[in-house]
Write a structure and sequence with these properties.
By secondary structure, this protein is mainly alpha-helical. The chain is built from 19 helices and no strands.
């Protein structure tokens, strides 16, 4: 992708952007792979707004950024066809349908739901750990392949193990470990230091935002970690949020958090919508909307301020070296998140559902939407047959 090819987006009406990106936001079940396929069909195959190479380059560049890559890709494609206004309209159209649905479901599941809703949540929540393992293992082959040298594969394994341990132990501070692994790998690859000095590291300043203030400040900090400081795909937000939402702030019970993760998987649009359920649990509808606004704002900022430099980002060895460390640590964190997710289960029948979900996803290669809806149905049947609900 060259700068010349991305500075003159072909014309498209805002109404077209609103309609097409809104359609993808409504039917985009299945996470990033589904979103990428739908965007490619629209922008490359049907409308021919982008050529295939430019689209693939954009996919790679978005994966080099922290935060939800498929959301950033949707914003980028809208930027390409209608400029900055199109990016804002298209990005919002992609995000809002799933946000409305997940907040409506949050009201149902986190309020005083009827028995069958509680049972469905307990069943779907029981399968979430299997979804986490599936999400993590699916990222391993490509990441391992990038670690080509013997020494780099030793470091890759170390980063993976550190991420897994951190997901179980340090919870809300996991993002600092991801950044540290990225910095260590950049040093280990012995790249020359860039001549141009960048701004002072923002992490200590951002970390300080987690202290003091009321519940809205805490919600904003959790959402900021999800949207601006997470690497490795949508599911890495689970260990980032769980310790904050359940153990530290006590906004949710473990069972409610499992429901939140399940809702983020079965609703269309970005998995990051899970943070809206956490915000709703903390401060009602306003908290849910605040969490979403903070979590998605960095994605818009990255595209609006830096999309014209995507070609440089892809070829930057320092960025790639950083992700060679942060990436496997994030995969380890996703895998490690299965431990506290499993520990949140309290009923024997939930463990049986978890085992079945593991077979369905890891052996039979079924998707998360089918797995979670099946688990929810089994939960309803089991509880109505006389089994106890989780504590």
């Amino acid at each position: 992708m060259t700068r010349d090819t991305i500075t003159a987006p072909p014309p498209a009406r805002l109404s077209t952007v609103l309609k097409e990106w809104g359609r993808i936001g409504c039917i985009g079940f299945g996470g990033p792979p589904a979103h990428i396929a739908l965007l490619r069909k629209l922008c490359v195959e049907d409308r021919k707004w982008l050529d295939a190479q430019e689209f693939e380059d954009a996919v790679v560049a978005c994966n080099l950024l922290p935060g939800p890559a498929s959301t950033q890709l949707a914003i980028f494609c809208a930027w390409r066809v209608r400029g900055r206004t199109g990016a804002l309209v298209g990005g919002a159209a992609f995000i809002v349908p799933g946000l409305i649905l997940i907040l409506a479901l949050a009201v149902l599941f986190l309020g005083n739901p009827p028995l069958w809703v509680k049972a469905a949540g307990a069943g779907a929540g029981a399968a979430v750990a299997a979804v986490a393992v599936h999400a993590g293992t699916s990222l391993v082959p490509a990441s391992w392949q990038r670690a080509t040298q013997h020494s780099s594969r030793h470091r890759w394994t170390l980063y993976l193990l550190l991420g897994a341990v951190a997901a179980v132990t340090i919870g809300p501070w996991l993002v600092l470990l991801l950044i540290a692994c990225g910095i260590v790998e950049r040093i280990a690859q012995r790249l020359p230091t860039p001549r141009r000095r960048g701004p002072a590291p923002a992490v200590p300043v951002l970390a300080a935002a987690g202290f003091g203030g009321g519940v809205l400040v805490s919600i904003a900090w959790v959402a900021l970690k999800v949207g601006a400081l997470s690497y490795g795909g949508g599911f890495v937000i689970v260990p980032l949020m769980q310790a904050d939402a359940v153990d530290h702030h006590h906004w949710m019970t473990s069972g409610q958090f499992l429901n939140a993760v399940a809702l983020g998987q079965v609703t269309p649009g970005p998995v990051v919508h899970t943070v809206a359920v956490v915000g709703y649990a903390a401060a009602g509808l306003g908290g849910g909307l605040l969490a979403s606004a903070v979590a998605f704002s960095p994605s818009f900022a990255f595209i609006l301020l830096g999309a014209h430099r995507f070609d440089r980002l892809r070829g930057n060895p320092h960025v790639r070296a950083f992700l060679d460390g942060a990436g496997p640590a994030a995969i380890g964190a996703i895998l490690g998140s299965a431990v506290p997710l499993t520990q949140a289960l309290t009923q024997p029948w939930q463990y049986a559902i978890l085992a079945g979900a593991a077979v369905l996803m890891l052996a039979l290669r079924r998707g998360p939407v089918l797995t979670l809806t099946t688990a929810a149905a089994i939960g309803v049947i089991t509880v109505l047959a006389g089994a106890s609900l989780p504590h």
